[in-house]
Write a structure and sequence with these properties.
alpha+beta, DNA ligase i, domain 1, D-amino Acid Aminotransferase, Chain A, domain 1, OB fold (Dihydrolipoamide Acetyltransferase, E2P), 7-stranded antiparallel sheet, 19 helices, 35% helix
Length: 597
């Protein structure tokens, strides 16, 4: 959308021009939503691989170990990956590069190629705002040349220093560290570094392509790599194990207590008949809670609690730790949800719950202010027995034997949709989202989405990323309050914009969101900011329509934000493929098909 811009400039442009359709990364298909600075997109200029740059005077840059792989090789790889749209070619390039690395270089290289910097389960963040980035880029203009190339490990160490900067002078420290890192880099290397800062590489290497490249490099089957990733939740670690321990090492990495694994996911049900047909005429329905999904691990006296995004939230949930320690088993892995409740036991808004999850100080006061209710729905391991391959029916029976009924999610086995509808209404009246339907014979598919589990909700909803925000007017003046909404394009790894909305949030949420989005800015315009697609929102709408105004070719009618999904990340955003499928199903319900799909 629009032309690339330098991050240090603030051009005066008409926001409507950014809605014009563009071209994809390889010159085909719908355009990309997120613009990057010109320095991040222009790869045509040459570079001197024998020199690096040092930033502001007096800053100490760690000396690279002589046999470390130069960062220039990774930058050269990303150029080649971006230049081809062929999946097999990308896999071959990835495999050849990964095989050339030292063991300690493999995890950080994998993370940098996919634009993640740190592992999925690593809670560290750069905390680099737009102002800090502009100053750092300006500072690199004063750089002096040194005869030493930047290495992959050195870049990773410096990113870690940026993320770990603390104290009253931390903003200045992060800026100087970033300035030094960018100053060490050639233009092509800086391109890759900045894309990682923005969190979007845009080279057509998503998680699936990377896993296949890892399998090719290690000479193992792709399914074993994918399975290990579901259990480990860390692409870099999976690559290291595959390359240096092979298939045997991958097979040994199954369920591990006190380490998070990716949760099983559900498809959205289009109608109740579909649910019963897929589940063989009988299914278990549970309340779908308006809470945060958690894994509870216990091993002896040690309890660890992990969020849906694999972050350790143990310290924020002491009352849940106490419940776990009270259960009559020395080791287990439970799955459930926690819901914030009021004095009457009714669910509080999801944002109140997220305040508990983010709290690192004053936990005792937070327990009084926002009490939590635990609901459990699955048991995956207990006292030496792993239940992942056991059917859902058997796992539930084991769960009932371990856990008091007050902690169990409301559940019912049904054979007719007439039994589902009143249970759905009961869930909604109780303040919950809807229902989950689970096949009685379903095993637990770690990290996979499928039709063994269905979500049943009363309204059309999409999880979408905010990719830009405009300043509001009237009552909303002074707040970033008109949000550009996008779905995830699995074919490119980017995002497709399908509309804007300012509806759904409170004034307090507008104020909080303004500060948050400013910190995620990648470029500034007269009307607002383009931002990294890290904020996920649940969006209700009346209809999906064809539209020439957005590169995706679609728009949402009467879009409004239902809630901010702080428990979800960019990888959880609904896909462009699902959007098109929903569009087609609208016509099927009306007894006709769209002519243009």
């Amino acid at each position: 959308m629009g032309h690339p811009r330098r991050p240090v400039s603030v051009p005066e442009r008409d926001p409507q021009r950014h809605s014009d359709p563009g071209r994809g990364a390889h010159g085909r298909g719908p355009g990309r939503v997120l613009p990057l600075p010109r320095t991040v997109q222009d790869r045509s200029r040459g570079r001197n691989l024998e020199t690096g740059r040092v930033g502001w005077s007096g800053f100490t840059v760690m000396s690279p170990i002589p046999d470390e792989t130069p960062f220039a090789r990774l930058a050269e790889l990303t150029t080649k990956l971006e230049a081809t749209s062929k999946r097999l070619e990308k896999r071959a390039l990835l495999a050849a590069f990964l095989k050339s690395l030292r063991r300690d270089e493999v995890p950080p290289a994998v993370h940098l190629i996919v634009g993640r910097i740190f592992a999925e389960s690593d809670s560290r963040a750069l905390n680099v705002g737009w102002a800090t980035l502009k100053k750092a880029l300006a500072g690199t203009k004063q750089a002096t040349l040194v005869p030493r190339p930047l290495t992959i490990l050195e870049a990773t160490r410096m990113f870690a220093q940026i993320a770990e900067a603390r104290g009253p002078d931390s903003t200045r420290a992060r800026r100087r560290l970033l300035e030094s890192l960018l100053g060490r880099a050639s233009e092509e290397e800086r391109d890759v570094l900045l894309r990682n800062v923005f969190g979007e590489m845009r080279i057509g290497v998503n998680e699936g392509v990377m896993l296949e490249g890892i399998a090719d490099a290690a000479g193992v089957d792709a399914e074993s790599v994918r399975t290990a990733h579901m259990f480990l939740g860390d692409l870099g670690m999976v690559a290291e194990i595959a390359l240096f321990e092979g298939a045997v090492g991958l097979r040994s990495r199954g369920l591990r207590l006190l380490a998070p694994m990716k949760p099983m996911l559900a498809e959205m049900a289009e109608d109740l008949d579909e649910v019963l047909a897929e589940h063989g005429g009988q299914t278990a329905v549970e309340f779908k809670l308006d809470g945060a999904r958690i894994q509870i691990h216990r091993k002896g006296d040690v309890v660890r609690i992990f969020s849906r995004r694999l972050s350790d939230v143990t310290d924020s949930l002491p009352e849940i730790v106490a419940i776990a320690k009270s259960l009559p088993a020395s080791e287990f892995l439970l799955e459930g949800e926690v819901v914030a409740i009021n004095a009457d036991g009714k669910p509080l808004p999801f944002q109140d719950l997220m305040r508990r999850f983010r709290r690192v100080h004053g936990i005792a006061a937070a327990q009084e202010e926002i009490p939590l209710k635990l609901y459990l729905f699955d048991l995956l391991h207990v006292d030496g027995q792993t239940l992942i391959d056991a059917p859902y029916r058997a796992r539930w029976e084991s769960l009932e034997r371990l856990v008091p009924s007050e902690y169990l999610t409301a559940r019912r086995i049904v054979t007719h949709k007439q039994e589902i509808e009143p249970f759905l209404q009961a869930a909604l009246v109780a303040g919950h989202e809807g229902l989950m339907a689970k096949a009685l014979d379903s095993t637990y598919s770690v990290g996979k989405r499928g039709k063994k589990w269905f979500k049943i909700k009363p309204a059309d909803l999409l999880d979408m990323a905010i990719v830009a925000a405009e300043w509001g007017s009237g009552r909303r003046e002074g707040w970033l309050s008109n949000y550009w909404l996008a779905v995830r394009d699995e074919s490119t790894g980017g995002f497709q914009m399908i509309g804007k909305t300012f509806k759904g949030l409170t004034d307090a949420e507008f104020e909080t969101m303004t500060e948050r989005l400013r910190g995620l800015a990648t470029s500034e315009e007269r009307w607002g900011f383009h931002v990294r697609p890290e904020v996920v929102v649940e969006v209700a709408y009346n209809e999906i329509q064809r539209s020439p105004h957005y590169p995706s070719g679609f728009a949402l009618r009467f879009a409004r934000i239902v809630r901010i999904r702080d428990d979800k990340g960019p990888d959880d955003v609904d896909t462009y493929a699902r959007l098109k499928d929903l569009y087609k199903k609208q016509f099927e319900r009306k007894g006709r098909g769209p002519a243009d799909l």
